[in-house]
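TA notes. Do not distribute before section.
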Amino acid sequence: MVGPDSALAAGIATILPDWKIERAEDNAAAFAVIESKPFELVLTGENTTGEDDVELLRQLRLVRPHTRLIILTKRKYTG
């Protein structure tokens, strides 16, 4: 999970108790972790920008093409 939202991370841990959740402060840190090992799912936090999240998706597809990405944002993507 990308972002500092601990309430969201706690909610996800409740919904998916058997999944191991790792957190990264921002998309750059998340990508560094994604490059080092595979993940089934990546969630971006609502404090990231849609543009940055789409770029993370592009990078993710190059190194982990089968990993799913869910973008949670309050900002409108204009790209």
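Switch to the second chain here.
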Amino acid sequence: MEQHRATGSKMPSRRLLIVDDDQKFGHVLAEYFSTKGYEVRVVLRGEEALALVSVFQPHVVLLDLLMPKMSGIDTLKRLKRLSPTTKVIMLSSADLEEVAQGALQLGVHAYVCKPPNLSELEHLVSGVWPSRES
């Protein structure tokens, strides 16, 4: 598990969990969001995300669809039971309308195709941020 923390910020902690089996991609996202003031954790598997969610309490999860063992959809279903208010943005290299619609019906906030435009992804993430710290 990788940790990235923003420093020197007076803003409340904005916690972001990245779940992606592509370690390099996860690292790129973590570095980007860390520079934007987010407190970021990165895990490679759905099981790790579920174990971390109750401790870290992320506001937003960037979740890969295609992962070994536990898929993004399976992770999403369990994550929503553990933390119903956590916003989930699904990322995938699969640009399939039926997959995106299925994910949206299961409660993801958005479905984004890889590779994402980082500034657009950050705009999407910041748009679902809670208006005040809970």
